[in-house]
Amino acid sequence: MKLLKRLLKDKLAAASLAVVAATLLIGLFAPLFAPHPPNEANMELRFAGASWSYWLGNDHLGRCILSRLIYGIRPSVLWVLAALGAAACFGAALGFVAGYFRGRVDAILMRVCDVMLSFPGYVMTLAIVGMLGAGLANILLAFVVMKWAWFARVIRTAVMQYADADYVKFAKVLGMGHFGIMRRHIAPAALPEIAVIASSAFGSMILQISGLSFLGLGIEAPHAEWGMMMNEARSVMFTRPELMLAPGLAIIAVVSAVNFLSDALQKELDPKLAVSGKRTSVFAGGMMRGLRKKEAA
Amino acid sequence: MSLLEVEHLRIWDGGSGAVLVPDSSFRLSQGECLAIVGESGSGKSLTCKALMRLNRPGIRQTGRVALNGVDLTGLSDKEMRPYRGKRMCMIMQNGMRAFDPSRPVGAYLLEALSLHGDWSRSEMVAGLSAAMMSVGLSDPSAVMGRYPHELSGGMLQRTMIALAIVLEPDVIIADEPTTALDAVTQYEVVEQFVALRGRIGSAIVFVSHDLGVVRRIADEVLVMKDGVIVEQGGTDAIFGGASHPYTRYLVSSKEALRSRYLQLMGGDAHC
Amino acid sequence: MEWNKGESLGIIGESGSGKSTLGRLLLGIEKPDEGRVTWGGRPITDRRARRGTISAVFQDYTSSIHPFYTVRQALLEPLKLVGGPGDARKLAELLRQVGLDESYLDKFPHELSGGEAQRVCIARAVSSNPQCMLLDEAISSLDGSVQMQVLELLKGLKETYGMGYIFITHDIMAAAYLCDRIMIVRNGEIEETVETSQLRHVKTDYAKALLRKVIV
Prior knowledge:
The structure holds 3 protein chains of 3 kinds.
Chain A: H1 2-9, H2 11-28, H3 30-33, H4 65-101, H5 103-118, H6 121-132, H7 136-163, H8 166-174, H9 178-214, H10 226-232, H11 242-268, H12 277-281, H13 286-290
Chain B: E1 4-13, E2 19-28, E3 33-37, H1 44-51, E4 59-67, E5 70-71, H2 77-80, E6 88-91, H3 95-98, H4 105-116, H5 121-134, H6 140-145, H7 153-167, E7 171-175, H8 183-199, E8 203-208, H9 211-217, E9 220-225, E10 228-234, H10 235-241, H11 245-253, H12 255-265
Parallel strand pairs in B: 3-8, 3-9, 6-7, 7-8
Antiparallel strand pairs in B: 1-2, 1-4, 4-5, 9-10
Helix pairs in contact in B: 4-5, 5-7, 7-8
Chain C: E1 8-12, H1 19-27, E2 38-39, E3 42-43, H2 47-50, E4 54-57, H3 71-82, H4 88-97, H5 114-127, E5 132-136, H6 144-161, E6 164-169, H7 172-178, E7 181-186, E8 189-195, H8 205-212
């Protein structure tokens, strides 16, 4: 909670938090917010401009763009969040085991990660989707498969640093079990760093899923998704630019907000600003400096 | 005129305004060894770094620091540079952090020498090798080729002392050089400092919290507490019968330890 | 080597002599490649057998207590594990024994000075009623006068509770002050073991050289 308060002091962070929170809420409760059903086609309203009942106008099938935008939050943002969570959990579990136990376990897990990471990300996702077929579930599966190795590796580094600390040694001397130590000592310290890593990956994953949908490998029609909306608007890009702008700006807004939020979170966990120099000097390992690199889409 | 004169040195934190050292004045004569003792937080490191104006940017200082009559506080950074290293050399506490970790120690030493003199490379290497042999590093070329993390704390300290021997500065400032070392290496490095005094005529400012080391090496002692110099005097006077209660407290605090050890060793202990 | 109940054993060595590794092996948090370490006949690497037998205080007091824990939580950790009373009275008593008072209970580790933090670590080590406390360079990072205070505290605990120590250090004077028996370690091997009272009669050349190099 102290973290939240400090975060809100930064205006940009507060604004980003508001945007992200609003987006998530609107997406969750889409039926309440969307003025019209997203798949309701009205051919007489094709390419209609903005009007009082259709705030952003209609697309090539006469569907309400605003409603599609709102329902599009679900696959573009919410499901990505779920995939992110799954990849993070799986990666964290393996990262903890590798970083804490070291030795052979660590070596084997890291070789597996090396194999996974040596495949170029986007290409692999395309390959997996190509094999399994298009569709939301397959894309998300592809994401989890590609991303868990990265999480595992980064979290392992953090865990290795904490597992070396004297307070962990003392807990071992006392006779505390391995999982007790991981749960009580290492997890609370590693959690903020996992949050920062996850948030920095969030933005790029949103872009990836939109990108794949743009290429036609994503959600099947007629479901609403931002990338797909942009694809459908390609043919009328110059005559009806607003059809592309609406989902495009939505993507920009949400990804920017996520990235600013992630930045603010990183800054907050930086030793110079947190509770006290000595306390956070335990955390200020090369880890935090290494986290400055964010993932590019 | 003394070699180094410090008058009314005042150090404070520019950000918070907290005064760290309110008013310090002391002198250092040619060839003399002045020890600054005190516990953590007494301001001894700050004072040391203030002499060379090496405190971090947030720390501000006023006062006069004169080396051979020239007031260093009035110089610009560029004018200050020839003084650092050549006229005043610093030996740091933690050797591992004093050297650039990405380059071998030799590259760093040669660069430092080339900044301060016109020797050719072979002259520099010869001078350094001789100095390193004299401080007990028996294979100078191997040591120069190693990275800082490959050398032990004691070896890094000796390397810094060797650099000081070649540079022959007017003042050597040693900031807790033995604190991070184990007991045996401490003894050896202190012996190196004692030998150093005989070899070159530099004055030494030796900062330490270990009174045993100070007793061995210093002529004059400055006792600091919370940024204030509480007592100054000759080594014998301070250890024999100091006037300030804090000094007496410091001197007597490890007395029980010493006397037990001397009793056990029956007077065979090195003193 | 052996350690007997109530004994105060000092392990002396230079840096790199392997004394810290030996400490970890004695605590059971590292497994030896050959040989065994047992406590009362049972292997010390068995976590359950280890509870309540040996405890430790380490050198780096800034990382010895979990930064998120208050002093109270740090003291309760071993008590909860061993199943002792975790009430306020017991905590206050622990702090009093090490020269602190109840006002410290809600402080965080970064708010304590070096001496105070080590005292909390000692209180924490004592709380599980161990028979032996292993101190790995526990006073090396402290200021001179604070070192003396902690040594006096350890001596006091020895006299009150019959607490045994394994005192790992490079400082021979401190070991001679606190310990009954001194073991000198060099390059991972035991060079010599001697009763403190017989310190001046060490036999090996290395030990003699080591004793000569003490700055009194």
